[in-house]
Amino acid sequence: QVYLVESGGGVVQPGRPLRLSCEVSGFNLSDNAMHWVRQAPGEGLEWVALVSHGGKNKEYRDSVKGRFSISTDDSKKTVFLQMSGLTAGDTAVYYCAKDRGQRTGSLDSWGQGTLVTVSS
Amino acid sequence: IVLTQSPVSLPVTPGESASISCRSSQSLVRVNGYNYLDWYLQKPGQSPQLLIYLGSHRASGVPDRFSGSGSGPDFTLNISRVAVEDVGVYYCMQARQTPLTFGQGTKLEI
């Protein structure tokens, strides 16, 4: 059974950093790409970043490039999203999602999400 | 790539059928010939779940009353015999290229 459990969300001041974690079980990070998707309160879904199987290739949406960094620790079976330079526009529930394959883009398992609130 | 869904809201009666449309601003075909268009359902208070991938392939565990069809630029999600547990917001998403993008959502209401 595949499980994804996010953690690390909370209230953070503008400009401060925050690191989200996603602990996975039931599959290997070396076999599947992983994604972060966010959802602002009352809004739709917005893709944020992906890391390829094995962690070598990383891609980001333009609005977070240079501020967010996605990474994996295979030994800990964890995916991270390091966020810096946070603004109110980054306030959202952040979901970790498993790619159906090595880079299909289809997200076949999702975590429960972790809420990030950027506020002074 | 911009995805435009319609309708925004879809009231249905249990047992009836429903259709949701998704139009893409660009081709969603990769070199392997597949259309990289998925459908997701986000039930109230829950995380999204994959229903359909590659335009017409049902994800594991998805009831066969859900079906996807179409080729660029128009795609359709059909739900036959709508059930009460199908309520929520349906999103189409393109996986042709990054940034992956979602439609704005269609809220199915009973």
N-to-C order of helices and strands of chain B:
EEEEEEEEEEE
Major β-sheet annotation of chain B: 7 strands, mixed
Number of E-state strands of chain B: 11
Helix content of chain A: under 10%
Task: Please write the string of helix (H) and strand (E) elements of chain A.
Answer: EEEEEEEEEEE
Q: Mind summarizing the main beta sheet of chain A?
A: 7 strands, mixed
Shape of chain A: globular
Count of discrete alpha- or pi-helical segments spanning 4 or more residues of chain A: 0
Global Rg of chain A: 13 Å
Radius of gyration of chain B from CA coordinates: 13 Å
Distance between the amino and carboxyl termini of chain A: 40 Å
Task: Give a brief description.
Chain A has no helices and 11 strands. With 120 residues, chain A is mainly β. Chain A is globular, with a radius of gyration of 13 Å.
Please specify the SSE layout and strand pairing.
The complex is a heterodimer of chains A (120) and B (110).
Chain A lengths: L2 E5 L2 E3 L5 E8 L8 E6 L5 E7 L6 E3 L7 E6 L4 E6 L8 E8 L7 E4 L3 E5 L2
Parallel strand pairs in A: 2-11
Antiparallel strand pairs in A: 1-3, 3-8, 4-5, 4-9, 5-6, 7-8, 9-10, 9-11
Chain B lengths: L2 E4 L2 E3 L6 E7 L12 E6 L5 E6 L3 E2 L7 E6 L2 E6 L8 E7 L6 E2 L3 E4 L1
Parallel strand pairs in B: 2-11
Antiparallel strand pairs in B: 1-3, 3-8, 4-5, 4-9, 5-6, 7-8, 9-10, 9-11
